[in-house]
Amino acid sequence: xxxxxxxxxxxxxxxxxxxxxxxxxxxxxxxxxxxxxxxxxxxxxxxxxxxxxxxxxxxxxxxxxxxxxxxxxxxxxxxxxxxxxxxxxxxxxxxxxxxxxxxxxxxxxxxxxxxxxxxxxxxxxxxxxxxxxxxxxxxxxxxxxxxxxxxxxxxxxxxxxxxxxxxxxxxxxxxxxxxxxxxxxxxxxxxxxxxxxxxxxxxxxxxxxxxxxxxxxxxxxxxxxxxxxxxxxxxxxxxxxxxxxxxxxxxxxxxxxxxxxxxxxxxxxxxxxxxxxxxxxxxxxxxxxxxxxxxxxxxxxxxxxxxxxxxxxxxxxxxxxxxxxxxxxxxxxxxxxxxxxxxxxxxxxxxxxxxxxxxxxxxxxxxxxxxxxxxxxxxxxxxxxxxxxxxxxxxxxxxxxxxxxxxxxxxxxxxxxxxxxxxxxxxxxxxxxxxxxxxxxxxxxxxxxxxxxxxxxxxxxxxxxxxxxxxxxxxxxxxxxxxxxxxxxxxxxxxxxx
Length: 498
Known about the structure:
Layout: H1 3-19, H2 24-40, H3 44-58, H4 65-78, H5 81-93, H6 99-112, H7 118-135, H8 140-151, H9 153-156, H10 161-170, H11 174-202, H12 215-223, H13 226-240, H14 246-263, H15 269-303, H16 305-316, H17 320-334, H18 340-356, H19 365-378, H20 385-397, H21 403-408, H22 416-442, H23 450-458, H24 464-487, H25 490-493
Helix pairs in contact: 1-2, 1-15, 2-3, 2-15, 3-15, 4-14, 4-15, 5-6, 5-12, 6-7, 6-8, 6-11, 7-8, 7-23, 8-23, 8-24, 10-18, 10-22, 11-22, 11-24, 13-14, 15-18, 16-18, 17-22, 18-22, 22-24
């Protein structure tokens, strides 16, 4: 049997282990270890690889972001930020039809901006918002489905742990990925609000009415969310402004939320120790999955599966858009079986080489010239009237600038290699956001959406089938958003400088 065939057979073997309820990290590790032993014919080589792979995986400085973001979420909960967000949103929206559910989505979006985990966002906001939803007559299925969907904003609105892992796997800039995720994240929140508005009109009995609050109470509630804004501006704004790196930003955010929690009285010696313990447990789980995936992906690389698959797709000369749609559809199906982090770690080393080989072009040489010429002119570049007229005509006609025009602007000429690098970065960012969105859909897709089970565990009185029926409306919104992001890459990429 060839190495390639062994690599292909490892996929059904891995799925069998997962169905047997073996932890995903352990399943990937065992599959990779056995596969390497079969290919090399010697168990000593996989054991030697275990030593080097462990060091290589965990010596990556960027991974330190993960415990910092998890700790930031723990401190934010202790500081009462989740309650403040929900109360502020509820005071402004609660009196509308479906307003309390809309407030829950808004609070999830706000909490997602200081917590990079979807499961943590769902669990935290579930504890805060679920009693209020039930208090004002919202049905169990609608309430749990809304909170499960809102929880997905935890990984979509930056900062995002899943995006950090994707950036490491594809060697991309974390800050640019965070920036590209902002608009899709806001679109997700807007889509969920529209779904709520439609749902309560189709099923009026699913939502009650909350009394209108006075403007004094509204502004008082709004004033209490300043810590969230402070942390978000400090972390995300500091990263984008170049004040500190994403890793440093995560540490600053954890420190800031810890100080706020202490000032609010939520952070004591006991809760501090518990926060560290919970963060350590979650980090250990994530890191073990990272190690298992690294070991399994090392085996796949040795078996040549990613390389052969990429070469096969390129040779077939398939339409790039068709290949992309097939990959995204695969993610939607896989989301019914696996958690988001495991999907990213398992599939990106296979799919990214395939996507790299597809013919997607986001920036042409003429567009690059026009962009840089416009920037140079905005800075006050002084040009002769005839040269300025020629540059303006070229930009208007979508033509490339001549060497003389480029030199007059004081720009360096861009070769084909540099243009290809720009397009590759744009492709990586766009594909990463698409993957993030479809992975997020998997968190609420029946029958194994992780967020659904987290919220349902908090509301034992609601049958899971009621949650399934209601959440399909949110899944439909997500599918429409995926189609929009695929059809119009500019939604994701227009904020990325090139």
